[in-house]
User: Fold this.
Amino acid sequence: MTDQLNRRSFLKKSVSAGAITAIAGVPALLRGKNLNSKLQFAGIGASGKGWSDIKEISTHSAVVPVAFTDIDLSRMDKVKRLAPDAALFQDYRKMLADMGDKIDGVSVSTPDHMHAYITLDAMRQGKHVYCQKPLTRTVWEARQVRKQFAKSKVITRLGNQIHSHSAYRTGVELIQSGAIGKIKEVHSWVTSTGHGYAGVIERPENPPTLPTTIDWDLWIGVAPMRPYGGDRVYHPFAWRDWQDFGSGAIGDFGCHILDPVFTSLKITGGPNSIKAVHTGLNDEVWPAQETLYYNFPGTEYTVGDNFNITWYDGGRKPKSSLARMPKGQSLPRSGSIYVGEKGSMVLPHVGAPTLYPVESYADFKIETKESLNHYHGWVDGCLSGKQPSDGFEYGGNLTETVQLGNVAVFFPGEELKWDAENFKITNKPEANPRLTRKYRKGWEIKEVV
Ligand SMILES: NC(=O)c1ccc[n+]([C@@H]2O[C@H](COP(=O)([O-])OP(=O)(O)OC[C@H]3O[C@@H](n4cnc5c(N)ncnc54)[C@H](O)[C@@H]3O)[C@@H](O)[C@H]2O)c1
Assistant:
């Protein structure tokens, strides 16, 4: 009861002040920018995946959680319990301005449309950044984050925790060891659909009253203004469906499921081309079902000069015959088939890899790689100065590929040729504006030069 009362008066006070301020004194152990022993950590986006990021990062013994930001003050109970002395904010810009050198690194776990704005801002201010996948909402934003990362001497990591999971690490090792020979093609899929999160495909006609705990202007951020839609129409979680905020099923799962593909095949650049085929699109949400055909330049782990990666979502799947599984076995709900010269590997999301055909691999012993702590890997990098391999150069390239899918859907059935170096679609000039977005006044992202 006391807690509730305290919380209510806290919310009232903070909302009337327009922006929340610190509710407690800053702990005495705050130091200047000295990363020899401790990482002063702040979480941006305190609930949903943000809570799990904050909780996991804070289990590292060198982490001192010093501040948290969430635009929805009703979603901060857990972080308050985790670190009662940490400062709380509703606007991350105020947090960075007020705390200055008392923050060394941040996690960014907001909806996709705000990743680039916040991440760029934090990197410009010299903060280490752990940012959720996809790294950005647009292809252009991913390129800007890559460029800023190259300029800023900070440690970054994409919030793709399964990158460090035993299943994916083992799959990567198998491909690179040549267990199925060089790779001819890859097929990746997820059952999620691009309009299954909010469950509606048009904006609500009668938007409800905005709860006093939410700063809607901050939630909208870079996107065009629209009224609050009610619980789980946009906020929380359901923003994934909406083109203005989320990135559909490919945005939600592409960076996860394509991560072992990119890592194992050492894909360091963009595709040669992409084509989308789907069930239809309106101006608001992503397609219900889509297939994306990517063609990539070959690498040391693939056959020939180029190879195909095909993405399926919304219930579409590749032909199971590609996996060469025994009769009666079926493909997992989501994952990838790697089709090699000697056999196929099925790598479920998230599950142990299996090699086919069974008779060829009956005596093959798979050496399982151990899981690593992804969150601690970022913290260790911040402390040691050693950049993890999946920082914002890798994550930016992966995200560019994923978000190119969300460009191609506007030109269904057309093969778009991609010149990654010159950042343009060469055979369809009218597709190039789709690489970026229009920014709301006051929330523009400037090109990084
Ligand atoms: N790595 C994974 O396994 C995984 C799993 C789920 C989500 N995610 C990613 O995490 C991110 C968040 O997803 P979610 O499902 O938790 O969304 P969510 O909407 O449930 O939660 C987002 C949280 O951030 C807050 N927020 C929104 N805008 C903010 C802003 N500008 N500043 C500060 N706080 C803000 C919200 O109030 C909410 O508490 C997304 O990018 C998503 O793709 C990753």
In short: Residues 392-408 form the longest helix (17 residues). The chain has twelve helices and 15 strands.
